[in-house]
Structure formats: C-alpha cells, structure tokens
Specification:
Cytidine Deaminase, domain 2, eleven-stranded mixed sheet, 21 strands, binds zinc ion, Rossmann fold, globular, ThiF family protein, ubiquitin-like modifier activating enzyme activity, single chain, alpha/beta, 503 residues, eight-stranded mixed sheet, ThiF_NAD_FAD-bd, Ubiquitin-activating_enz
Length: 503
C-alpha cells in the first residue's frame, strides 16, 4: 500500500507562514480537514485550496516550547466536534520542526501520534457511531504531517491496523509551479544520466529527478498524442499511461508519429507504448485500450501526477476538467484546428492549462477556449452526441472528417511540451492559454502574470468539486451511460458509441 498526498499551494503557503515564520522559535500545531481516496494499492490524500484550515493563537496552547506543543483540551474538542459534523474523512495534524532543513518523525512524534490515534479509534469513532446526528458515520484517516524549512514528512496513523504507520512516498504541492518538497532526510542525489547532458544547464538535476518520478497520463494517442508521448519521454518523464480506444488506420499515417503500414488495425495506445519502450527501455509505460469514460480509465487517470490530453472533442475536455479538479491533478491540453474555407486553409494550434486551486477552470474562465454552451448542449442530447461520435471526428459538420496534417500537430504538441517543462522548472510564469494562427500570424500567450485568473468563487466545478475525490460521482455523458446500460441488456454494442478520444 502506497500513500500519496496532493496539497494545493495556497494551503501549503498558509501552513508554511504559520509554522515556519522567520524568527519563530516555538513549535506549533494546526489541523487541516481533507479527503482520502482509497484505490487499489494506494491511498490518496487530497487537500484542495478551500480545505478548512485550523490555525491557533498562542493562548490556545497549554504548553508551547521549542520542541513541544499541546493544545488546550477544550480547543481540541471544539475542533473535533466541527470535524465530526463535516463530511471530511481525513484529519491532518500538522506540526513543525522549524529548526530543521529536512526532517523525519522523532520518537516523541511516534508516541504523540499513537496516543492521539488511540483517542480517535477508541472514543471519537464510537461516539460517531452512537450519535449519528452529530455527523456522517465514516472511516477516519488520521494523517500526521511534519514541516521543516525545506522538507516534509507525512504518514497515516492507525492503531487498529497491523501496520501502524504508513509513510507518504509522494508529496505534491499543486501550484503555479509543480513542487515536490524533500520527504524525510535528503538521501543521495540520483546518479546523473548521460542521456540528459545537453539539457542539464537548464533542467537542473533536481528538476530532472522530478521528471523521472513523474507519472503522466496521456489521453488520446492520435496524431497529436503520438508526438506528445515521444516529446515527454525524450525530456525524461519516467512513467506514462496511454489511453485511447481507437485503432491505427491508413488515413492516420499522414500524421501519426512512428506509425508503419504493418501497424494498421492495431490499437494506437499499444503501438505507441511498444514504440516508446523500444526507444527507451527504462521508461515505465502502460497502455489502455479503452474509452476515456470507462471506469478503468478513471482508475488510470486518478493515479497520475499530471494529465496531458490531445483529444478531438470538447466533451472529453469538459470531462477531464471535472475529473482533474475533483482529484487535484494539473491538466494540460493541446488542440489543433484546420479550416479550409473559403478558399485558403488556416492552421491553428491551441493550448490551455488548468491547475486546481490556482487557475480558473474550463467552465468558468473568461477566455472562450471552446464553445462551452454549444458543447454542453450537444452532449445533453443523446442523438446528436451519438451522431458526432459515429462520425469519428467531432466538428460542426459531423458527417465530415476534420482535415489535419502532421506539421500542425507538431506545432501544438511543441507548445504543450515547452509549457509542461516550464511548469516543472519554473523558468517564467506559467501559461494558462496559447493560441496560434498560421494565416494571421497571431501568437497569443496568456501567462499568469498578464492574466492571473483564479478559480471563480461561484463556479461549482473549481469550487465545490475541488478535491472531493470519490465523494461525488463523475458525470459521464448521458449517451455513454445509456449505451453502457443497454450493453448490459445485450441490445447495443458499447464500442460503437464510445468516445473517439484521439486526433
Ligand atoms: Zn515532531
Ligand atoms: Zn471553474
């Protein structure tokens, strides 16, 4: 069993200000209410930007010294009653080792964590069971987090389990820049890989390490996806999950990177995985031949550190927007658009990034990235949705396949590739959207510095659904849900209705 934590940067910043302020020479204690999601082999703890944070004034402590802190029992009980009444299932207690650069739990921490956990298991949980009017009965995950100046350590504590401590192996701070604080005492730096000699001056060893430990889910293994995958693998991303339900056809070969005649008829995600593995034997890559809306795809996506998409329809983008906010995953999207009317073509490349807790989302941004209402309306209507999917490509004219060419896919993939590296390395403020038009020569890069559009307070997607994890069901398209139901009755083949998530 592994433990991963995703915490929104604004929460981490407030915790750091409270616990690690310059000139502070006493340990402090705080609590955060969060949500834990249990997956096969993994527990994910999600702390969104709006997670309730309980910071205390000095007079709330009975004792507060350089290395020891204790909260007044009344204050602790008040906090616990509030937590009981909420629907959060993960209680995080945070303390600090302000005197350390990087740190690890001490034997005093072990004792304190076990005492607190016994109280939770023996008194708090039974109290919830006996008095369900106080708050929803649920299993409580007790997470202990210690902050040092540059590092952290976190673990789940459970005195009921054989394994009383489960230490976190991944700790991601989701902000304007992707951050992975050192967990525990810093070990030996990883061995330098000669493959990256020519990029070491701008991708420093710690960032190269971060890329190596990054798990990226790629949705859509079409023309765009085939280029994106190779680009990510070449710059050092260590683990990739490829999702697509389509097979390679002859008409894909004008733009499918690495595609050969002998591969025609094979699933795109599998061919791509095999090609990548041949190029980089050390790369950890898995392929899923499935619609984006299948539950197995959801399992894949939820475990990823970053979701990258090269899909051909806006419905998929809205679904990914919601999924990534719900599970706190940064979402990077590349798209292309070729228009051939009235007499000469134009080639447009688009990019956008949605970072939970930092940027506005696809449903509330003021930039009209995609035709929001039209898309949402179209997919509420089962017949239209089916026609659009069966056409293979989703355009305003469902009967016509969208025109496309390799060069424009390269253009769009390169926009995303650069922005993903920038997000990891933090060279300059991240871009939330880029629009390029070949004919008019427009290149518009909206960065967070120019257009710092935060999550909209009244947007349910980036507000209410932020970090709720499994507490809410993902809204699958009605047509897909209907097809899945009919498939159970043996009336209709789900395959013909599944979203064609590739270019
Ligand atoms: Zn401690
Ligand atoms: Zn929003």
């Amino acid at each position: 069993m592994k433990l991963s934590i995703r915490i929104a940067a604004p929460v981490m910043e407030r915790l750091r200000r409270y616990h690690l302020a310059a000139g502070k020479h006493a340990e402090a204690l705080s609590y955060v209410w969060a949500r834990a999601v249990e997956r096969k082999g993994e527990i994910l703890v999600l702390v969104p930007h709006n997670a309730p944070l309980k910071l205390f004034a000095p007079d709330c402590f009975v004792r507060q010294t350089a290395g020891n802190v204790q909260l007044c029992p009344d204050v602790l009980n008040g906090m616990l009653i509030g937590f009981a009444a909420s629907d959060f299932n993960c209680l995080i207690n945070v303390h600090d080792h302000w005197f350390d650069e990087t740190t690890t739990f001490s034997s005093t921490d072990d004792r304190d964590d076990l005492v607190f956990d016994r109280y939770l298991r023996r008194s708090f949980e039974p109290m919830l069971l006996q008095h369900p009017h106080i708050g929803p009965v649920r299993r409580i995950h007790n997470l202990s987090l210690v902050l040092a100046q540059k590092g952290v350590e976190a673990r789940l504590v459970n005195t009921r389990s054989k394994r009383r401590f489960l230490k976190a192996t991944k700790f991601s701070v989701i902000g304007e820049q992707f951050e992975r604080p050192v967990i525990g005492i810093r070990g030996n730096a990883s061995v330098a890989d000669d493959m990256f000699t020519r990029q070491k001056d701008f991708i420093t060893p710690d960032k190269q390490d971060m890329l190596a430990n990054l798990s990226v889910a790629l949705v859509g293994c079409g023309g765009l996806g085939s280029i994106l995958a190779e680009s990510l693998a070449r710059c050092g991303v260590g683990s990739m999950l490829l999702i697509d339900d389509d097979e390679l056809s002859l008409s894909n070969l004008n733009r499918w990177q690495g595609g050969c005649h002998k591969d025609i008829g094979q699933p795109k995600s599998k061919i791509l995985a095999a090609n990548l593995k041949r190029m980089f034997p050390a790369l950890c890559v898995s392929a899923l031949v499935s619609s984006l809306y299948a539950t197995e795809a959801e399992q894949f996506l939820v475990g990823a550190d970053i979701v990258v998409a090269g899909v051909d329809n806006d419905e998929a983008r809205y679904f990914l927007n919601r999924l990534c906010l719900q599970y706190q995953i940064p979402y990077f999207d590349a798209g292309v658009d070729v228009t051939i009317e009235p007499d000469s073509p134009d080639f447009r490349a688009r990019f956008f990034a949605i970072v939970p807790g930092v940027t506005a989302c696809l449903e509330c941004t003021q930039i009209e990235l995609y035709q929001r209402q039209k898309t949402l309306d179209a997919y509420q209507d089962v017949v239209t949705a089916e026609a659009r999917r069966n056409a293979g490509y989703v355009t305003e004219q469902p009967e016509i396949s969208a025109p496309n060419v390799y060069a424009i896919n390269q253009r769009s993939a390169s926009l995303l590739g650069m922005e993903l590296l920038n997000y990891i390395c933090g060279w300059q403020p991240m871009a939330t959207s880029i629009l390029e038009s070949w004919k008019s020569g427009i290149h518009e890069r909206l960065s967070r510095k120019v257009f710092p559009e935060p999550p909209h307070p009244s947007c349910p997607i980036c507000g209410y659904y932020a970090g709720v994890g499994d507490a809410e069901k993902l809204p699958r398209p009605r047509a897909f849900a209907l097809a899945a139901l009919q498939h159970l009755d043996g009336c209709i083949d789900v395959g013909s209705l599944s979203a064609n998530a590739s270019l």
